[in-house]
Amino acid sequence: MQTGTDLLTATCWQTQYELTLDLYTCAVESAYLNGDFDEMERLAAIVLSAARTILDKVKIYEIQISAQTAQNQMLKAIEIGRIALSELGIEFPLTPDVARIDAGLKQISDRINGEKIEDLLYLPPNSNLHVLAKMNLLMAFFAAVYMRLPNLLPCISTAIVAVV
After folding, report:
1. What is the pTM of this model?
2. Per-residue pLDDT tens for 27-59?
3. Distance separating alpha carbons of residues 137 and 160, to the nearest angstrom
4. Cβ within 8 Å of residue 27, ≥6 positions away
5. Cα separation of 134 and 81, whole Å?
6. In this structure, how many other beta carbons lie within 10 angstroms of the beta carbon of residue 63?
7. Does residue 85 contact residue 145 with C-beta atoms inside 8 Å?
8. How far apart are alpha carbons 86 and 45 in whole angstroms?
9. CB 134 within 8 A of CB 163
C-alpha cells in the first residue's frame, strides 16, 4: 500500500479520485490490521477530508470503529458511529429514549403487519447503497454499544430494522 500511495501525484484526489480512494482505503485498513493505529488515523483523516460523499467515507468510519473497539475505547467507537450515522441522516442517542424505542417497535410492527416470519426469507436483497451503509455502520458499532452502553441495544435493533 505504501508504494501505491507514494506513487500518487499531488493532484491525485482530483485527477484519479477512484484509484486514490481505493488505495488510501486499503492503506487505512492495512494499518489497522497491522496494529499501527497512529498511521491508520493519519491516513483516515486524509480520506475523510478528501472524500466526496458519505458513501466514500463509510468504510473508513467502519475501520475507525473497529480500531477503537480493539483498543477498548468503546465511547470513542460509539462517537465515531454517531458522527457517521448523522451524516447518513440517523441521529443516534447516548441515552435510551423509551418513546423513541416504542416508536421504532411500532414502525417495525406496522411494516411486518400480516407477514409471516418465514416470508421474510424471500425478500429481495436490498441494493440501496445508503441503506446498506447505514446497516454496516449500525452493525460496526454494535459491539461497542453492547460492551459500554448496553441499554442502547434496543435503539440499534430498531434502527437496523427501520432502515431496511
Report:
1. 0.88
2. 999 999 999 999 999 999 999 999 999 999 999
3. 10
4. 1, 2, 4, 5, 43
5. 10
6. 23
7. no
8. 18
9. yes
One-letter amino acid identity for 97?
D
Grid cell, residue 107, equals 414502525
Q: Which residue's C-alpha cell is 451503509?
A: 133
Q: Is the pLDDT of residue 1 over 70?
A: no
The 10s digit of each residue's pLDDT in 98-126 is: 887 788 788 778 877 777 778 777 878 88
Tell me, letter by letter, the H, E, C secondary structure of the chain: CHHHHHCCCCCHHHHCHHHHHHHHHHHHHHHHHCCCHHHHHHHHHHHHHHCCCHHHHHHHHHHHHHHHHHCCCHHHHHHHHHHHHHHCCCCCCCCCCHHHHHHHHHHHHHHCCCCCHHHHHHCCCCCCHHHHHHHHHHHHCHHHHHHHCHHHHHHHHHHHHHHC
Q: Rounded to the nearest 10 degrees, how much is the dihedral formed by the CA atoms of 113, 118, 122, 123?
A: 30
Phi, psi (deg, nearest 5) at residue 124: -70, 155
Please provide the average confidence, as pLDDT, over all residues in the chain. Answer: 89
Side chain identity, residue 11: T
Residue length of the chain: 164
